[in-house]
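Practice problem 4.
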């Protein structure tokens, strides 16, 4: 029973099918009418059907009114078209008549908008096919067409008159001229045409051929001879039908194929074709009917039209017939569906990035072909999947008269790269952030402690309770933030991670010691980071203190004291005796004042992670220096690839606080994981967003770690110069003696290729250290080791940081290599691969053999065939070949890590305990 019910129910798709429309269209109409449907399977109640039909009817009525208004213009157009086409006098007359006839009005109109929907709710081509199928599909349809007259058409239904009108209407000027031409050949029909171009002609032809007449108004004579099925086909589609006719009718045709063709091409078929084609985007045949009604002419044309419609109806796929019968009279009339051609081009589109042609067409509500055509006009060959840049999108949209609003989303994941600008009025002064650097034992820690103690004694009772990697002190009501990490780590590692936290560097130089290698290194670090340097000459209490000597030495590094005409501030202090500290703090404020350090406290907090650790009780704890905005308890944030919500916040004095402004160091809890020092920190409106961003950052980080090395290496230097990514090649030179380092510097600085120059950012005598690697990493520099080598730990750091170290023993080869790299000529065939290290533990002198080094292989392996170099204190003492490699008394091919062995070298006997023998092989490198 239920099944039966279901069967009888009319579903949207069925109804749409019966109208030759898509379910989507019906759903849209239903929705517009306020009738809720879910999808194409939804059942349509009777009142829904009648509402839709009323909707169509209303559309028709409106269209008719419009059409009547344009009648005059249409007449004119029709006349022109007819006259142009009519070579023969008859045709001309016919055309004129047609023009005079009220029905002709739609002719002019047709190309513009309305199309016979009911007649052909489906696209022209499909209607053509459907008619084809009607003839071929068989009996059912054909019989339909034959029996058309008898069909239960509702009088007054647009469909009746449709056939005639569509022809006339749809016929563009050219087509109408075609009619004229074809007419003469068809003879009697031509006369029928003019008189209402639809009515008479149709009638006459219909009288001859009931079924086909409606469809083939033009070639009436031909039609007359033609079998029904064929005529139906010909009527519907010009060329296609012609073919079909040829195929089907040849045997029985009595008409001249040429006539047929001509009729197909120029008269009725073209119209049809046009009509149908036009029908695709829009359909409005009912309006035509309406026209006819209003003109009073259509009524005459009704009978043939009916038939025509009927045929059409029949054409509407087999199922429709069934559905028609099932859904009754009203629905049989339903095929009269009209779609008005509505220009739904949007006024404005929002563009959020590049789009494909297909995407743009969709947002412009245009056919892809239209957009492609426009692109062709712009000289761009494109397909539907072609990506269009923003400029082209803008151009195309403007061409279609559509405004474009660009809303390019900001890459929120890389928030450290987003520059937030503030209005001057929103900015307020912020405390400077100071770092202390200097040579070992020059008193950095003592100075930091002394300053901190000063502030503690001045302010807080209870002493230092917290160590959070930074602290604030106050001088004359103004705060100064010190990064509490003596040494280079904070400075360099953070800079290597892209974080700039320091505003001022205090360079501590012991008055009794002078400028030392690490002093120079610190200077280079600060200069590379473009941070102003303030010199604190420490230990002035010491008897050997020579302040002038220090100043003198430092002028060599362009740090000229103010009193000597320079701009570097020098302060004499004794960290131990707490002398000059106040003056130092005042000078810091002075330097800060010149820098005009400002931030906007009224925005979301942004900062840098100074330290982070996993606390047994609190979980991940992070020390953050807030650099802009204000951080509040409860704020959600991202720190590196971690995220969280501020659960608790403590300041440098260990006091719980609710909010922290710019330049304030705080400890916060509430993270999911432990971030790294130097990680950027930014607040977000909610935790979910923070989590998403952190997760995406983690993925990107992993990918970049796996991905290409972005550091500069000599191997890809030329490429980078070419691509404009590099102007200067930053180099760190480390050599065994100061003399050769100086010589190398001079030679390298003279090289200039492709507009790129060598810029020495640091140099010194001594082994390559971890600090060199970090500086190289932070500055994207390469390291040249001249007669010096990195030890295993340093090499490991270099590998991790992807710093290119080039080791040489001859100055000329350094110059040659750098020059070749800059010219893109570098073509190393071999690359040295270190395979192991052995440490000399004892030596034995054996006559005739020389000195045997009793070694322990500390890393990798030593092979007999490997080349070796002897390193003493980071300096290469000898480079050559192994003479013999023995395990006890036996020769060995190789000795692995953790085993002892005896090694003799060719032409070298001067082993000393603690020497390192480094074994390496040369491997070919593919470029
Ligand atoms: N006489 C005197 N001694 C000082 C002064 N400042 C520091 N010292 C001493 O110098 C030594 C080294 O001081 P630190 O503060 O550890 O030096 P540092 O630069 O931090 O050393 P590293 O952490 O190893 O780089 C200590 O014994 C201090 O007591 C000073 O102003 N006068």
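Answer key:
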């Amino acid at each position: 029973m239920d099944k039966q019910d279901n069967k009888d129910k009319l579903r949207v798709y069925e109804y749409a099918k019966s109208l030759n429309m898509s379910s989507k269209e019906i759903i849209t109409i239903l929705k517009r009418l306020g009738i809720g449907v879910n999808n194409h399977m939804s059942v349509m109640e009777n009142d829904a059907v009648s509402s839709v039909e009323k909707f169509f009817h209303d559309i028709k009525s409106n269209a008719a009114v419009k059409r009547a208004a344009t009648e005059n213009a249409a007449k004119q157009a029709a006349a022109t078209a007819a006259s142009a086409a009519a070579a023969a006098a008859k045709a001309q007359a016919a055309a004129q008549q047609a023009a005079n006839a009220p029905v002709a009005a739609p002719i002019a109109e047709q190309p513009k908008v309305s199309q016979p929907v009911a007649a052909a709710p489906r696209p022209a081509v499909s209607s053509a096919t459907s008619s084809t199928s009607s003839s071929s599909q068989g009996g059912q349809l054909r019989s339909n067409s034959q029996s058309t007259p008898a069909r239960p058409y509702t009088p007054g239904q647009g469909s009746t008159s449709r056939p005639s009108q569509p022809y006339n209407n749809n016929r563009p000027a050219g087509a109408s001229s075609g009619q004229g031409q074809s007419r003469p050949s068809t003879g009697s029909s031509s006369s029928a045409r003019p008189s209402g171009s639809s009515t008479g002609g149709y009638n006459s032809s219909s009288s001859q051929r009931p079924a086909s007449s409606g469809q083939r108004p033009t070639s009436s004579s031909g039609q007359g001879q033609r079998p029904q099925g064929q005529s139906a086909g010909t009527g519907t589609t010009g060329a296609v039908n012609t073919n079909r006719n040829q195929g089907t009718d040849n045997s029985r045709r009595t008409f001249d194929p040429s006539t047929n063709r001509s009729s197909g091409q120029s008269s009725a078929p073209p119209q049809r074709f046009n009509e149908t084609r036009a029908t695709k985007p829009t359909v409005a045949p009912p309006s035509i009917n309406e026209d006819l009604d209003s003109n009073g002419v259509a009524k005459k044309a009704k009978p043939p039209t009916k038939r025509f419609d009927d045929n059409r109806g029949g054409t509407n796929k087999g199922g429709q017939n069934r559905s028609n019968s099932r859904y009754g009279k009203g629905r049989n009339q339903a095929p009269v569906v009209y779609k008005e051609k509505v220009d739904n081009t949007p006024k404005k589109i929002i563009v959020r990035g590049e789009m494909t042609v297909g995407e743009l067409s969709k947002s412009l509500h245009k056919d892809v072909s239209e957009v492609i055509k426009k692109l062709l006009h712009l000289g761009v060959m494109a397909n539907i999947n072609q990506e269009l840049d923003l400029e082209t999108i803008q151009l195309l949209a403007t061409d279609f008269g559509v405004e474009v609003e660009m809303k390019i989303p900001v890459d929120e994941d890389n928030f450290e790269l987003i520059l937030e600008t503030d209005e001057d009025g929103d900015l307020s002064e912020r405390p400077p952030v100071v770092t202390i650097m200097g040579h070992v034992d020059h008193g950095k820690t003592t100075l930091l402690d002394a300053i901190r103690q000063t502030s503690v004694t001045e302010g807080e009772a209870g002493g230092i309770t917290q160590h959070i990697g930074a602290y604030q002190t106050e001088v004359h009501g103004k705060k100064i933030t010190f990064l509490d990490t003596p040494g280079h780590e904070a400075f360099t590692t953070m800079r290597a991670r892209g974080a700039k936290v320091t505003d001022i560097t205090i360079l501590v130089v012991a008055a009794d010691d002078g400028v030392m290698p690490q002093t120079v290194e610190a200077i280079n670090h600060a200069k590379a980071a473009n941070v102003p340097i303030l010199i604190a000459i420490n230990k002035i209490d010491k008897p050997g203190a020579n302040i002038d000597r220090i100043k003198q030495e430092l002028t060599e590094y362009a740090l000229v004291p103010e009193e000597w005409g320079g701009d570097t501030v020098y302060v004499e202090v004794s960290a131990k005796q707490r002398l000059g500290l106040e003056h130092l703090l005042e000078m810091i404020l002075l330097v800060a004042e010149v820098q005009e350090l400002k931030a906007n406290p009224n925005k979301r907090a942004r900062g840098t992670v100074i330290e982070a650790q996993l606390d047994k009780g609190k979980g991940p704890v992070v020390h953050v220096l807030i650099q802009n905005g204000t951080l509040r308890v409860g704020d959600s944030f991202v720190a590196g690839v971690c995220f969280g919500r501020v659960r608790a916040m403590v300041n440098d004095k260990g006091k719980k606080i609710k909010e922290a402004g710019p330049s304030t160091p705080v400890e916060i809890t509430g993270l999911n994981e432990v971030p790294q020092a130097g990680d950027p920190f930014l607040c977000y409106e909610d935790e979910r967003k923070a989590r998403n961003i952190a997760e995406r950052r983690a993925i990107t980080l992993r990918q970049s770690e796996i991905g290409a090395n972005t550091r500069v290496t000599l191997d890809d230097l030329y490429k980078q110069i070419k691509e404009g990514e590099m102007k200067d090649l930053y180099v760190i030179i480390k050599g065994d003696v100061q003399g050769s380092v100086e010589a190398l510097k001079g030679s390298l600085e003279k090289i200039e290729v492709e507009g790129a120059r060598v810029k020495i950012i640091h140099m010194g005598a001594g082994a390559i250290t971890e600090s060199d690697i970090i500086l190289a990493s932070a500055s994207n520099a390469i390291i040249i080791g001249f007669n010096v080598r990195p030890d295993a730990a340093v090499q490991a750091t270099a590998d991790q940081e992807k710093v290119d170290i080039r080791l040489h023993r001859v100055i000329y080869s350094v110059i040659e290599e750098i020059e070749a790299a800059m010219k893109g000529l570098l073509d190393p065939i071999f690359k040295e691969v270190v395979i192991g290290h052995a440490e000399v533990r004892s030596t034995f002198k054996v006559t005739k053999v020389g000195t045997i080094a009793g070694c322990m292989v500390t890393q990798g392996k030593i092979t007999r065939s490997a080349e070796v170099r002897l390193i003493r204190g980071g300096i290469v003492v000898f480079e050559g070949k192994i003479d013999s490699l023995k395990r006890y008394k036996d020769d060995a091919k190789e000795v692995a890590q953790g085993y002892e062995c005896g090694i003799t070298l060719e032409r070298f006997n001067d082993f000393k305990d603690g020497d390192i023998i480094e074994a390496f092989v040369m491997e070919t490198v593919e470029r």
